[in-house]
Amino acid sequence: MKLLSFHLMPYRPLDFEAAAKHRSAWVVLPNSLYDPVKGAEEYERHIDFLVRGEALGFDGIGVNEHHQTAYGMMPAPNLIAANLIARTKTVKIAILGRALPLTNNPVFIAEEYAMLDNLSKGRIIAGFVRGIGAEYHSSGTNPYFSHERFHEAHDLIVRAWTEPGPWTFESENYNLRYVNLWPRPYQQPHPPIWIPSQGSSETVVWASHPDRKYPFLVTFSSEELVTRYLTAYREQARKHGYEASGDQLGWAAPIYVAETDERAKEDAKRGIETLFNNYLRMTSEMLIPPGYTSLSSTKNFFKMRQTMATRDSFQSADQLIASGTAVIGSPKTVRAAIERMREKTGFNILIGMFQFGVLTDELARRSIDLFAAEVMPHLRK
Amino acid sequence: MPAQTSSVKIGDVAIKLHRVGKGTPVLFLHGANGLPQWLPFFDAIADGYEVLVPEHPGFGGSDDPPFIRNIGDLALFYLDFAEALGLERFHLIGHSLGGWLAAEIAIRDRARLLSVTIMSAAGIRVPGLPAGDLFIWGPEETVRNVYYDQALAERMLAMKPTEEQMDVLLKNRFTATKFGWQPRWYNPDLEKWLHRIKVPSLVVWGKEDKIFPYQYADLWMKRLPDARGLVMVEKCGHAPHVEQADSVIPKVRAFLKEAAR
Fold it and tell me: Fewer beta carbons below 10 Å: N end or C end of chain A?
């Protein structure tokens, strides 16, 4: 199994009481709540934490892109990736990913990834995402054209990596007289492309297509949903006429390991609850702006929200553990949860988020060390 | 007299069109929320006029053709519409998104226009005074911000739409997003061409508009070359023709009469 250590780089010193006065921890959370002295310290610790992944035996370390939020301090993940490249030797660096529709010239993304691929001598995994709904507010990108921009940008970037330039690109959203990438990517024909997703059926059909066969990573979902989405990918691959390999199926989840289940839950509780209830807190209008998903998906989403709103919307550690959204427990419990998912889906890429919410460096380190010592060897068998 | 509803084809695009009354045509262009209900305002204007209320492409019961990608496309579509319907001379009234659309139509071709009424319109910006963000407001918050009279807002909120109506509202919201998301409810190139609207015009605004504050009306007055008047409605939010119809109707009718002379 391929194992990655992934980080959102949350701004942990956040004043939660002050933040609660605002609509969300995204878009409208005043940046006066960000203290650059504390923030600089956060960057250093978060980066140190990721770098440890190499010594612990992970195959890859991962970062991603989010804008104007305390949830993650990486509006420019490639800057962090460049730093990680300089501090590591062999580990893969996964950017999961850049949000293609948010820029007006995707060639810049192709260039940055190609640079990182050269700097790392071929250690880059290039994630492509659309950005979450809130980012259509914070970037001013029109969500109505999100899917169209994603697909056009994808085509442009892959062509820029693979077709000798210069050439001209024309599409609805991007019209470029000269495309001629310097540098070209180090890996041939191009760095692996991975697709982190919340499981939309449109993405499943597209990513599993025989021309692409892009690894599909399901993020932040219950065990039931991860199983359903990964199974959907497998079934779609069969419809396309081939059998998907485990290397096309990924699961990204918060993981915490301690000596016992009780201890693990106690240690992880505050971190996991702040992640889901404070850092991820946003309105439907931010999460699903019009056009971000299809009419029918949007309709289903609002129906679901309505039923959820009648219940207590707070997600407790117990609930998150019970649903399998967060994998928290003793090495035995965590091994069992991962094995169960492997049996059900045959997935072969595990992206562990070992730091989440306000979880301290000390606890996160203890947990990842224990994971490396007592879980990793079993997954390598 | 009840309104007649029909489907008219403009090229390949089917448009749901409501009409009421007889006389000189008045084309009413609805706002971003579409046309959730028929308004007494239409019937009142229809006394002596033929009021035409189309549902824009992408809204309500009309087709959603992919070639209409921005407000300029929509404006040119409506020039096709006027030609196809044989509207030789007509008055144009637009509310909110429809007001913006009216201006985009008028700067392109005013030959058929008798007058333009700009009501609580999007389309231009007042620097330093951004429009209220109905894309970030929740559904209840939006209704409360649209109307000044909170009792009216309560009544609106008490009406629970059917599933079919919900589907229409979602479709409308998607299309409104296409036109209004970025830049948020304006076209940076519109204001400099407003001098081309050399027909009598009227500006109607709610003094308490929380989407486009009343200062927007002042800028329209400054830029429209033949503005005959500003109707600034006290105790009124973003929909003067709904919230203060009784005070707005006679002023609009008086203006239409004067403009046709």
Answer: C
